[in-house]
Design goal:
The chain is of the alpha/beta class. Helices cover 32% and strands 19% of the residues. Strands 1, 2, 3, 4, 5, 6, 7 and 8 form an 8-stranded mixed β-sheet that branches. A 5-stranded mixed β-sheet has the order 9-15-20-24-25. Strand 16 and strand 17 form a beta hairpin. Helix 9 crosses helix 10, helix 15 packs across helix 16 and helix 17 packs antiparallel against helix 18. It starts with a helix and ends in a 6-residue tail after the last helix.
Length: 507
Amino acid sequence: MTNQAAERVQHEGLRSKIMSPEQAAGFIKNGMNVGISGFTGAGYPKAVPAGLAKQMEEAHGRGEPFTIGMLTGASTAADCDGVLAAAKGIHFRTPFQSDPTLRNGINAGEINYVDMHLSHVEQQQRFGFYGKMDVAVIEITGILPDGRIIPSMGVGTNNEWLKAADKIILEVNSRQHILLEGMHDIYYDIGVPPHRKPIPLEAPNDRIGSPYFQIDLNKVVAVVATDLPDRNSKFADPDANSKRIAEQIIDFFSHEVKAGRLPANLLPLQSGVGNVANAVLAGLQDSPFENLTGYTEVLQDGMLDLILSGKMQSASATALSFSPEALERFNNNIEKLRSKIILRPQEITNHPELIRRLGVIGMNAMIEADIYGNVNSTHIMGTKMMNGIGGSGDFTRNAFWSFFVSPSVAKDGAISCIMPMVSHHDHTEHDVMFIVTEQGMADLRGKSPRQRAKLIIENCAHPDYRDMLRDYFDRAEKAGGLHTPHLLNEALSWHQRFVETGDMRVK
């Protein structure tokens, strides 16, 4: 243990429980449910999972079973999700994930994966939907002398895991900046039906809780010292398509402000994970809008730079997921940022009532949309899980405006992202207000299915597929489908053609 890590564990009783990752992992046994910290590559444990994976592999080598049920806030990284999946050590996993090894296990049918809205995770655990939580493994920034816990770069579901678990393992990561202390706002108890009370948050920058986790210290069985980085994935530079998508959304904002339907500083912004969504935020740097606010789940490079430039006043999130360069900017400016960024439990950041009341503008990526405005954001060709729905459903259904963005084609044009029918439904036509590709924007509000189809085909589809979509829609109308015209024997034929030939286009 380094001197710096020792200084982070200021509680004498917990300092006596410092041990190696392998020793700590020994508290986790076959069949247990384990709550693990982490949200979109931030704040996940980095040492105990490796120690646990080694013990799983050794057990399997002896012919003994060793798997766990694994619950997180959202995705972790290769040194958590990845090593445990590679060790064949996960029999159940929820919610969001993004690790290739874990994804392969899910799609091979080796891991039972439950994809769910992030706002539901803590509540469902609280009510026992997943059974008893045996152990929580939580990364933190430090422990104060009185036992209060300084959270890390990701809050996620940690508060609930710490309350629900029988045993707690804490990873104290000295790589996390000590000045994260004070940046968090842990609201402890939203109550249970029928005794819930309104959550007293009226603006994105309100503070309604504590900067610390407060836990039952008697449940802590191990403390592990680490000095390891978060995933810190680099974002791709915005390409021409991403810039075009961003320009259209920003132009629409300008139009709505001029019409008096939107405040001059817009409404709180939510941006999903990914390069296209991040490019939209980057595009706001050169926009006329000032004094912006953010109410999102993951704060990424684009929103950080808006805060640093003075374009954005404040932002609320549950995790900070930066590229290496953005992390350096964050750490270099953390004194300034401590008053502008608030990190909360995901049960608050993704709470439907708060999203609706604050009037959040939701912007999320999609895999595909169909001509009627249904969106698939999780499955490839209808059967293979990509990452999961994450918080996009929480924001889409409850946002003031809900945008879905994507290039119009994928795989060098072999796949159209605008389809006759999506191969998997995550967001229905009832919730999706805007679809935007580099080709254009379709404003679906107040439009019937047939009106939406014409808008989406003409505005959003790639020219290589536009005639095919027109032909499908025209024939479906003539076949008698008067409200939502479909040819059921052809609706998913484009996906089947790609599976068989590697190209959706008719050649």
